[in-house]
Each structure stands twice: as C-alpha cells, then as structure tokens.
Amino acid sequence: MRAVDIIQKKKEGGELTADEIKFFIEGFTAGEIPEYQMSALAMAICFVGMTDREVADLTDAMMRSGDVLDLSAFGDKSVDKHSTGGVGDKTSLVIAPIVATLGGVVAKMSGRGLGHTGGTVDKLESIAGFKTALSGDEFMAQAKKVGVVITGQSGTLAPADKKLYALRDVTSTIDSIPLIASSIMSKKLAAGSHSIVLDVKVGSGAFMKYMESAKALAEEMVKIGKSCGRRVRALITNMDVPLGRAVGNSLEVIEAAGVLKGEVGGDLKEVCVALASNMVSMVNLIPYEEAMARVLDAIDSGRAFDKMKEWVAAQGGDASYLDDFDLFPKAKVVYELKSDGAGYISKIDAEKIGVASSLLGAGRTKAGDPIDYSAGIEILAKTGDRVARGETIARFHTSSEALVAAAAEKYLSALSYSESAPEPEKLIYCTVE
Ligand code: URA
Question: Which domains does the chain have, with CATH numbers?
Fold first, then answer.
C-alpha cells in the first residue's frame, strides 16, 4: 500500500477501506507517513467528505493509536461528557459532582483552553494545590472512592489525534465534520466511559456557527458512539452568548461552585441541569423527568456541593476555597467597563468576549504560555438587558492596566444594541440520540 495512492483515491471521491485508513493512521502515528501526506489527505477529506463507515473506521484507527482506558470495573456506571467548546463553559465543574452523587462515575480527562475558549484543567488549577496530573492508579482509586476524577489529557490517549489536530490547526483543515467527529470520538472512546453526553455548541462563540452543521456533527458522533456499543446522546446548545456571567479561570470556578451552593441560577444552571439529567437518566436507565428531579434535589440538599469539596480535596486542592471565595487570589486591577451604546443588548459575539478575556491574561495564544488564573471578565449585562450609555456593563479582572484598552475595544465591538427587546433565545435547541 502507498500513502500517495490513498490520497489520490480520496481526492477522486473514492471510499477508503478500513485497511487503507488503518495503514495511513498507523503510519502517520509512527512517523513513517510524513505530515505533508497526512495534510494532503486531510484536505481531500475536507473537500470530498467521508461515508459514515469511513468516519467510524477513522475514529477506530485513531482510538487504537494509543492507550484505551479500561473502566469496566464500573460496569455501566461510568459516564463522560464532552463539550465542543465555548466561552464561559464551566459545566463540567458543576455536573461531575452532581452525577457522582446519583450513581454515576465521572472519570474524565479534560483539556486546557486555547484561543478564545477556556479549558476545565486550567480552571481547576486555579484552586491552590489541585493536581491535574495523576498516575493511572491514582486516577482509578479516586474514581472508585469519590466517583469523580478529572485530569489533563494523557499523552498516550489517541496520540494520532493529537498529532493530526496540531496539523489541522495550521493547514486550514479543522472545519470538516468527519475530521471533527472522529477527533472528538476517538478521545472519548479511548477514555473508556460507557455512557457519553455530548454538548454540541452552536453560535458565535462556538466552533459550529450554524445549526445545520451542529446537527450533522451531533448525528455523526452519536452514530460512531453507538456503533462502538456506548450509550450516547448529544444536546445542541446555544453559544451565541457566553454561558453564565463569568469568563476566566478562578471566576468560573467561583460561579460553578455558586450553582451548587444555590447562589447562581440562570442559563448556566439550566444547561448544567439538562446535561446532568441526561447523564443520570442514561446511567440509571430512568426517564429524563425523574433524573431531573434527582439532579435538582442533589443541588438543593447541598449533597452535590459537598461532593465537589470531597473531589477537590481528594485531588489535593484546598476545598476551603469553595466555602470562602475570598481565598482565591485577586486580580491587581479591577476595571469597570462602561457601555458605549444605549438600548437593549440584541447580540453578543461570544467569541470576541472570549478573546477579550484572553487579552486580560486568562488565556494563551499558544500552548504552554503561562496563564493568569485571576484574570477574566464578569459580565453584568447580557443579551436582552437594557442599558444606558455610560452604564457599567462588565468588570475586567487583570494584572495590569496596560492590558485593559485592547480588551475593552474587543468587548465593546462584540455588542449590538436595538431599540426594542430582542426575542429571548433558546438555550437548549434539541437532543440527538
Ligand atoms: N475538538 C476536538 O477535540 N477536535 C476537533 O477536531 C474539534 C474540536
């Protein structure tokens, strides 16, 4: 078999066999097939697409390129959740402890933020002492004892995807549904959970800007998961506006803990409850409504908050931060951003808000950059709110006044105003299963 013939076949619209896909992915992972040939195949896939069978074979080949976690010790109770990425998306921090109090085992690997989106691992590291690198034995022991463990992505999990993702990033081959679906699902399947809930974000702050492509991606991922014997459900949720009111690492942990303490409601709580209820219904094989009643009770009773503290402490974090938010290091500069328009906020470009937060120090421009955990944004006015010119609409947290101007310009450019109140936006569009 020759890589060049496989590229040619795909370029001409052909359907690759499982053996051809395996040959390519194995060769690429081993460094025998060079990056320029992998890039050429990825570009051909972008233009020509793939059949469902090809996507399943590509996912399988990437999943098998490294370790596959064995969570069989938890039977059908292991459950994972994956978000396609957004701004202010701290749902994992809220959901994992809820689900662990209701029979699920959330043994999960999460990513760091890059570009305009945040990452769960960075958020957790804003809690003093929290360890995001655990050995395999520590990971399993904590899953058994506490029911929740979240670490950084192990380098040995789906290494083919890691290599391919980095290549796609610089060859303009990201926005292909077969490539995104196989990338996400290869990691989720290798991570071993029996049930998987996918949060497919759609809108200005998401990867998928339009409903049609979000639905197609959700359908593809659900098909792949099911063909591998997993229970899978995807929710398509709104990312036209940041989720909740906090963007930035420690600010997001505080907001997430606030949901479990009963202090924060709104869109964040609604999306968390929907995702957690789906996970609980899949783990316990109970109707969604019953699962939702249990989820709300876990929050109202304080059990989910207690579980969050138990989880943080088990991973070496100082859980007293969650009781007393003043313990989180504070930003040196807190700047009040004033509105430059008047009327109802009719639209927020969520991606720009993510970029503004990153400019304040909350994100990285390239992998490995240092991060300012206390930096970020408190959003005081969201879509549908009426504001006067000069009113404070956001609070910036940063280490230096010099970072404020560029972030303010970006933030203000994200907002549109109208004279009449905009139609309220839906938060959860549909479920794909
Ligand atoms: N997230 C992933 O893990 N892979 C993609 O291709 C896109 C988003």
Answer: 3-49 (1.20.970.10), 72-178+190-323 (3.40.1030.10), 329-418 (3.90.1170.30)
